[in-house]
Amino acid sequence: MDGPTCSPTCDACSEGTDMLPEETRMQALRLIKQYPFPGAEVEGIMGLLDAGYRMEFEHGQTICSEGDPATCMYILTYGRVSVIKSDFQGKPRRVATMAAPSIFGHMAMVDGSPRSATCTSEGIVTVVVLDRECYQRLITAPDATGRTLRRLLLSSMTDQLSRGNMRIRELTGGPVTATDSTPTPPQEVTQDDLANISSELEGWQRRAVPQDESTDDLQVVDVDGPMADEAP
Fold it and tell me: How far apart are CA 112 and CA 191, in angstroms?
């Protein structure tokens, strides 16, 4: 893909080789399957993947650390990442394990907050990194790559909010329905429950979407057009 790309600025990264066009397209199809949104374009996702730079991590390496300022966001293209947060006693606690394809580290870029968790590699991990300069350029860009980034982030945050709300309803007994005038008594809420909800709202836990080798069903993408607040 043409256009400027980001340069490596994140700590604890080792630069990998660029993806071949065929691999980039495959990763784009998988991301659309994981984070569906109206107007999804394979070319837009490919442009986003090519805008960043590829990094590889050995097993057990720290990708980002809780409390650190955010300097980049990540697109996980291969492997699994452990997400660890400090509990109310300050002890590290694993709250999730992410598998490719996933995006992470984006919430701190969106709101400027410190990293909310530590992410470490489980085995070999490959990510595409969008550093702050690249992110800030793309988040306001009117082209297909910029629109794709904004919609991808919105899709992720919508899923986070939906999962968090669902979990809260489960813990509070759920809404009263027309056929049941008495709500289900809420279950005992634990510190772990609250930590899990927090992790879901922060995007560390996501819906499970089967990812197989076949992407034939993804060749035709949604072409509903731009969202209301975006120019075509």
Answer: 26
